[in-house]
Batch of 4 targets.
Target 1
Amino acid sequence: MTVEVQEIGHNHATFRWSYTRPAFVSVTSNYTLTVRSTGDEKTFTVNSETTRYDVSNLIPETKYTVFVTAGTRYGFRTSGQVTATTIGKQGKNKLD
């Protein structure tokens, strides 16, 4: 499974994920998006038909590490991590 940053702003970001093997979709019941920064972690659980999530209330100029965990009938499968830094006041963003 892969996760990517679709959009990032001053205090929000949009993340999208997908399986490299589409057959896994049929055995997936939900996804949990985990968004971490120093000293903080947020999780968002969505149904198996959702593959995109908009996260709001992020802190400007902060680096976030993000990954997705799929709950399947066989257990859990976790994506690789992606990092992104929210835009600062001058409108510059960083995708690592």
Note: DSSP finds no helices and nine strands in the chain.
Target 2
Amino acid sequence: MDGANRDVASKLLEGDAAAANAARMKAASEHWFTDKDAIYKAMEGKSDTDRKTMMADYKKMYGQDADKMLDQNLSGLDRDKARELEDKGKLSDAVRAEVRARGLVLVDRQAS
């Protein structure tokens, strides 16, 4: 285990969930293809405080704003979806409708 995946493990052992989620976002962007679902999952369902802490931890740990990483790795609806999760922790009905209209996979965590 190396890089951001090691950071995930060490932050979980320290009990720092926000920093572990920041590391998950970094790990999701370190491969040939960005793991968009891992990025979404790191932000989804988190409180405003948890998301802000996670974004601050990302910058502290990796020396780059998480927004910049998201802009470099996501575009279009994928970026819109990430921005919505970053801002609110869940998707608005408008973004959910757009995802469905484009025929993309949407995991409906609110229905569970």
Note: The helical segments are 3-14, 17-28, 36-43, 48-62, 66-73, 76-88, 93-101.
Target 3
Amino acid sequence: MQASTITRKLAGTTAGTTNDLAHIDIGYRARLVAFTLSIAALANYANGDVTRTQVSVASVGSLGTNDAQGVLAEAGINCLITTSGMSQLAANIAQSGLGIILPAGTRVYLHTLCVGNQSTAVGALLFLEPF
């Protein structure tokens, strides 16, 4: 018999760098089999605005940290304009075929890193198989 997949969502909006923008508790032992990440930002200054998001089991984000522990997924977008102005940015990624085991009681966090003056919305869908 195949296990049924449970989908859990993390989402939030921010205008700056935020640890624990959102979190969920996994109340059962589960295997993370797939995820999606989405980022949408409105950059309103100049070249160099950056938005990155991270899904992690660590309560503080480690975006830009080498050999960080507990990172499950990460994605980012950059604003590459040469003068000031408005630029709408978006990215969506998906990964399947995973087998990451999460013990019962695991808390999963959504973190963001924003450089420049941006309004950002980020989200993640986690596809879990209890076992």
Note: DSSP finds no helices and eight strands in the chain.
Target 4
Amino acid sequence: MAGVLIRERDIKRLGLTSKQREELKKMAEERHRDPLPPPPNGSISISEASRRYNIPQPTISRWVRKGFIIVIQDTGWAKYIGQEQMAELAANYARDPGRGKWTIKKVADENRNNNR
């Protein structure tokens, strides 16, 4: 049963002994994770950026993987990226979403050339 989330009403249907029910409840309590630490200043999580800029989360994750966006902190549960950098890419993406990857690659290349 490890790794399976079960609702309270489903536990009753399984016909478990009281000891098995207690073990199951204990396992569920242990699975709760600690709250996330606050994001570093000037950063935003990938999921929050997705909601804020209306860009699919897999798209932003792909930009991170390709190096278009730098990860500021990776907590294991969430990756935090630069908010200004994300806002700039989102603005460029919004101008031409049909050619998103070409637009973003062009902006990222311009940023790299300017930083040299």
Note: The domain at 43-114 is CATH 1.10.1660 (Multidrug-efflux Transporter Regulator; Chain: A; Domain 2).
